[in-house]
Amino acid sequence: MTTLIFCSDTIMQNPAYEAHRCLLIQNVGGKKLLQKFHYCSVPGDSKEKVHNKTWASLMPTPRSSGQEQRTTNNTGTPKFGNKRLPQAIIVGVKKGGTRAVLEFIRVHPDVRAVGTEPHFFDRNYDRGLEWYSLLSTFLSCYK
Ligand SMILES: Nc1ncnc2c1ncn2[C@@H]1O[C@H](COP(=O)(O)OS(=O)(=O)O)[C@@H](OP(=O)(O)O)[C@H]1O
User: Fold this and answer.
1) Could you give the angle at the alpha carbon of 57 between the alpha carbons of 98 and 142, nearest 5°?
2) Distance between Cα 98 and ligand 1 center (Å)
3) Going by CA atoms, what residue is nearest to atom 25 of ligand 1?
4) 95 counts as catalytic
């Protein structure tokens, strides 16, 4: 059984959401099962290591750290998104209206989103997190 712990920043900044931002996905017999939310494990924990990379090493750095490879326009808004893991992922069943949700969210000038659905978890998982993080300018809320 392979276990993947996914940790992501939430768009909602309410602290009430922060405790539930880790999503455990278990791969059981080839089927990936979406589990209940779990808390993040300690950085360096073996469960966090996926494809020789840790989630911590690939997660977005805080804006204030100055480590982002941002290209900004005059307003300070990123002109081009960073190549990194997403800060938000839209999950939904086919015909569930996920595209509509994305189109609504990406109207915000500080949001960058993939053009096409990456299908990382169901089709491209074997390519690893590095591929995922370099894929495109992911849905990212900068403010
Ligand atoms: N607000 C609202 N109300 C009702 N229906 C809506 C809404 N937003 C999107 N849609 C319909 O959702 C369908 C697209 O779903 P997805 O974005 O998940 O697309 S897809 O399954 O990946 O192709 C697609 O359905 P079809 O037109 O039958 O293809 C959309 O018309």
Assistant:
1) 50
2) 7
3) 95
4) yes
Q: Which helix (H) or strand (E) holds 15?
A: helix 15-18
Q: How many domains does the chain have?
A: 1
pLDDT in tens, 87-129: 888 888 888 888 888 888 889 888 888 778 888 888 999 998 8
Ligand 1 centre to CA of 80 (Å) is 28
Beta pairing partners, 4: 25
pLDDT at residue 70, as a whole number = 44
Q: What is the ipTM of this complex?
A: 0.93
Identify the bridge partners of residue 37 per DSSP, sorted by sequence position. 23
At residue 47, does pLDDT exceed 70? no
Taking CB atoms and a 6 Å cutoff, what residues make up the pocket around ligand 1? 92, 94-100
Range of the domain at 6: 2-141
Instruction: Report the alpha-carbon distance of residue 66 to residue 133 in Å, rounded.
Output: 19
Q: Let me know how many helices (H) and strands (E) the chain has, helices first.
A: 4, 9
